[in-house]
Design brief:
D-Maltodextrin-Binding Protein, domain 2, 10-stranded mixed beta sheet, 12 helices
């Protein structure tokens, strides 16, 4: 090959080499940039931040919110600190006038324009999505925490575990005495809130009862506080509620649950704190690992339900979710007794 023919080949090789180096450098720097920014956004690409003060796009004004009673510990723990850090973002909790507070009533008030955003302990159902579309908008549900249902029995009841099938049998009225499932000869006294009272009962009916009706002997109560007191006073008492409302209580005993006999998972951290030893700071704590991994059989997410209408409601609902998804927000969720979503 002549020297004249070699020159173009050398130039071409040099250009290809330079191009490969430049392309590799571009890919590496772009990947590094994306990786370095990934901690600033959530799974939807929205701003995350570490503390409340660092979250952008927080609107100014007074915003009505409400919904699930399971959210009460978060409202008490996180919301006052949000208010102190972001005084421009004023929150006003609203209860329904003609129905009990809960996920369903909160979503209904959101659709009707009485709430800016709603708090829910269950997924939005098709009927609610349809009603929202009739009003000219859609609903977005942003998960911010992990929760689960815990079952409480009388502290003196000699029952060490329950299966989901046994729980269903109790609440549909097929099992009426504890001796039918290996317990003592004591009549079962089952308590529940009504299905119209919120997402917790709706989840229980759907996932545990398989859509069946409650048995005729189930006694309905208005609040979890009232129900836990009744369980403590009833030798054969049983009740279910959001795990953070049940696990720390000293007057009752939370029961391990399983899909099959002998495979139960405790909703609390071992070792179990006996009711006789439970007081002050010595209380049972949530089994975080079992809830995060899904080993515990009844888990769920808590959602901020946002009105997707391109207006202030959407901005405020998204801002509230983003605040709770910060590291500070997730830590406060943990302090409220729930499990971090991330």
């Amino acid at each position: 090959m002549s020297p004249k023919n070699e020159i173009p080949i050398l130039v071409l090789s040099l250009l290809i080499t330079v191009g490969l180096i430049a392309g590799g450098f571009w890919w590496f720097t772009r990947k590094s940039s994306v990786d370095s920014l990934s901690h600033l956004t959530n799974s939807n690409g929205e701003p995350r931040g570490k503390v409340f003060a660092s979250v952008p796009n927080i609107p100014t004004g007074l915003f009505n919110y409400g919904g699930s009673t399971s959210w009460a510990p978060i409202r008490l723990t996180a919301d006052p600190i949000i208010q102190a850090a972001r005084p421009e973002f004023r929150l006003h909790y609203v209860e329904p006038l003609s129905s009990a507070p809960g996920s369903g009533s909160g979503i209904q008030l959101l659709i009707d324009g009485q709430l800016t955003f709603a708090q829910s302990s269950r997924l939005v159902v098709d009927q609610e999505l349809s009603r929202a579309q009739q009003h000219g908008f859609t609903l977005k549900q942003i998960p911010v925490a992990i929760d689960g249902l815990a079952v409480a029995v009388n502290p003196n009841l000699n029952v060490s575990e329950l299966t989901i099938e046994q729980l269903q049998s109790i609440y549909t009225g097929k099992t009426t005495n504890w001796n039918q499932i290996g317990g003592p000869m004591i009549p079962i006294k089952a308590f529940s809130r009504r299905i119209s009272n919120g997402g917790t009962v709706e989840l229980f009916v759907q996932d545990i009862l398989g859509g069946q009706a409650f048995g005729p002997r189930v006694e309905f109560v208005s609040t979890t506080t009232q129900a836990l007191q009744k369980v403590a006073d009833s030798p054969g008492g049983i009740y279910y509620a959001s795990a953070p409302e049940v696990i720390p209580q000293c007057s009752i005993k939370p029961v391990p649950l399983g899909r099959t006999q002998g495979q139960s998972i405790a909703p609390y951290q071992e070792p179990f704190v006996l009711p006789s030893e439970c007081s002050g700071n010595k209380r049972n704590k949530l089994n975080i690992e079992a809830f995060q991994s899904g080993k515990y059989p009844i888990t769920r997410n808590l959602f901020v339900v946002v009105k997707q209408n391109g207006q202030s409601e959407q901005l405020a609902g998204t801002a509230y979710a983003n605040l709770l998804l910060t590291e500070q927000g997730q830590e406060l969720i943990s302090q409220a007794g729930f499990v971090k979503i991330r």
